[in-house]
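hi!! sorry for the late reply, been swamped w classes. u asked for the two structures so here they r. pasted raw, havent cleaned anything up. first the sequence of the first protein and right below it the tokens
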Amino acid sequence: MWHPFDYLPRSWQIPALVILFALTVLAAIQTNQPLNTFPMNALELAPNPDAAKIIINCWKGVDPKLEAARLLQYWDSYFILCYSTFLALGCYVIANRFYSSETNGKTLGKLLAWLMWVAGILDYVENYAINKMLGGRIENPWPKVSSVCASLKFAIIGAGLVFIVTAIVAHMLLRVLRAR
């Protein structure tokens, strides 16, 4: 399976991962805005307009103009780009370094690398819906669009993280077993 990271020289992959990780952490820090009782993911997953109104009204209790939520949304645009590319490269590196070309693991890793960008696109659609709600349109379809996109995004990211962690653990166990 072809992937754009095929053009990234192997010697640049780990430094690129480190840089992307640092950028992801820096962007994540900027999204740490005080929103009151409910974190942003509560609104992301709000199942209906009533739940979304409760969350937004709670935020308005301490921030009537929702400036913190809007600032979080601004920085989240950069965070999405960073985390999705970091996880995509992570899946790609694991696939290429831990699996031979004949295995399903390599294909799965490259597929998950593509899917990390799909998760990013879902996150941008989710943010669009959230911005509509922050702008006062706390009505259907925006809570449902946000909730569905967020759920799919979290599932894809979770699958990618499981792939990365299990591949690393399996690789380490094999090294230990071979050393014996």
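now the second protein. again sequence first, tokens right under
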Amino acid sequence: MKKATQSFVFAALMLLAFQVSAQATKWTLDKSHAKVGFAVTHLLISDTEGYFKNVDASFTSSKADFTDAVIEFTAQIASVNTDNEGRDGHLQKEDWFDAAKFPTMTFKSTSFVKGKGKTYTLKGNLTMHGVTKPVTLTATFNGTAVHPYSKKTMAGFKITGKIKRTDFGVGAGTPSSIVGEEVTITANVEFEKN
């Protein structure tokens, strides 16, 4: 009798897990409407901006307000673009991103908490240059729309935040008077509902 009860409980839990996962919706990045950029001060007098050309992201959520969203993001380091070939090449070397050894930067969320209005606090683990650190970002949900051609539902977000490059060992030998330590992240992204 005890075995039968355990089997029933196990089967019920498996069914519940299947129902929860079946209800979760996956959203994938529309790469033609996505830009993941960064800015850092140069000589303490201006900002130098850049972005990653080759990125991918997705999230799953079963709630209409996305509060259970699990977000994953990857950027190919070799795709860094600051509109200066020499600088882009230098950023890929060992003293900066070391793209040969660490070809990707990744982020995986740990929570997505709704705040006031359309804002969310996005927390997760960022891995860059072989170092993983928790980071906190702000996400603004810009709403959903049906794409006129694909007829797919699209969701738009703007994600902002700041990290310290030296926390990840990026450009550790370069003083902050030349290249600022604080890096501002700005991502404007659209996701397609699958």
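hope this helps!! also noticed smth abt the second:
The helical segments are 2-23, 85-91.
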